[in-house]
Amino acid sequence: MEPRSAAATGMDFPYTARTTCYIEVHEDGTVTHGSDRAAYERAVAGTSRLFAVWPGEWSSDLFVIDDLDEYAKAHGIKHDEERTGLKEHIHDVRWEPNPYAKDNPRSPYIGVSVTLNCGCEIHDLRTFAAQMKEQQGWDVATSGGWGSSGKPGGRKKYSLRVRRKSLAE
Q1: N or C: which end of the chain has fewer CB within 10 A?
Q2: How many angstroms separate the Cα of 92 from the Cα of each of 20, 88, 114, 153, 169?
Q3: List of residues 6+ apart from 10 with CB closer than 8 A
Q4: How confident is the model at residue 12 (pLDDT cuts 50, 70, 90)?
Q5: Residues 85 and 121: beta-carbon distance below 8 Å
Q6: What separation, in Å, do the N-terminal and C-terminal C-alpha atoms of the chain show?
Q7: Per-residue b/e over 85-119, b at no fewer than 16 CB within 10 Å?
């Protein structure tokens, strides 16, 4: 049985789902697992092939990762403005403490309301967190919930959690 094509599923393939398991088969036959930049680079160089197991409710399917560009965009190895909603530029960011957040005074994180005055939208929190770490020195929490509010076509306000210390610097 041949593995299915991940590229054939298009944008529906769950490249970053926690339940997607990546398998790398190296040219010497060694098999490893994981999805990192090094695996991508080996696959691009042709020294390995990437596969993924996508578990279903009743069975799992094996896919060959045959669109390495899409894989790289999904994993943040290559920037994808359409997927992330974020341009690669210095963002014009306005933030304020979120008055509705029930912050624990002992927690290192606080709730903030963020507005991007540059016209970008946050579709991918991990990408935004990486950009804010680089641009502002912020440590944006990516493991918890976050949300947005605003009118369609208008500027959105995002509710995020940010490490207290990084906002003061």
Answers
A1: N
A2: 35, 12, 10, 18, 17
A3: none
A4: confident
A5: yes
A6: 56
A7: bbeeeebebebeebeeeeeeeeeebbbbbbebeee
Contact in structure between 32 and 24 (CB atoms under 8 Å): yes
Strands annotated E in the chain: 4-5, 21-26, 31-33, 48-55, 60-64, 93-97, 109-116, 147-149, 157-163
Measured CA to CA, the distance from residue 70 to residue 63 in angstroms comes to 14
pTM attached to this predicted model: 0.70
- C-alpha dihedral sign at 91, 92, 98, 103: positive
As to burial, measured by CB atoms within 10 angstroms (0-12 exposed, 13-18 middle, 19+ buried), residue 21 is middle
Task: Using only the alpha carbons of the chain, give its radius of gyration.
Answer: 19
C-alpha triplet 32, 34, 37: angle, nearest 5° = 110
Sheet holding 109-116, edge to edge: 93-97, 109-116, 157-163, 147-149
Neighbours of 22 (CB within 10 A): 19
Mean pLDDT (the chain, rounded)? 87
* Amino acid type, 51: F
Please, is 57 exposed, middle or buried when counting C-beta atoms within 10 Å of its C-beta (0-12, 13-18, 19+)? exposed
pLDDT digits (tens, 9 = 90+) for 101-118: 888 888 888 889 999 999
